[in-house]
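Late entry, evening session. Most of the bench is empty. Finally got around to the prediction I had been postponing all week. Sequence below, unchanged from the version circulated by S.P.
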Amino acid sequence: MDITIRRMQKTDVDEVVRLEALSYGEHHWSKESFYNELENNLAHYYCAINKENTIMGYAGCWHIFEEAHITTLSVNPDYRKKGVAQNLLFAIIDDCYKNKIKYITLEVRESNVPAISLYEKNGFKSIGTRKGYYQDNNENALIMFTENIWYEKFKTLYNKLKAAQELQGQI
């Protein structure tokens, strides 16, 4: 599958909000939330698009000093298990390297096994729980964190995963 990652633009917001609703139901970010993020100097947001210029997924993070916090990552159900989420995560990590970020953190629903597996495969570890973090159902969130991404162990894992993705034609 041909996947291109590019910066999210204001013209993407309507489609991103539609995908957000597909993934998260009635408890999703609003258009205003995404517009505000695109104006936020700390925020870095991306869209994964195909040859037809269809948005397959999106992701975002904030860069705060030496840490990046992933705020959202979602893939249209029609494009899941095709390398889209992995490519979005690669874009975030690549951008962290370019911006001298050392650590990446995020929260993820305890029930979101596919996302947890993706993050673990990419060197994230669970370091705790935020009790009742999600307001829609009071579900707990796992707090996940990377070691310093500049450490050789992390860079080796990252390069190995990226090479495998390239071999599969997903980059």
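Two things to note before I forget:
Residues 4-167 form a domain with the Aminopeptidase fold (CATH 3.40.630.30).
The radius of gyration is 15 Å.
Will write this up properly tomorrow.
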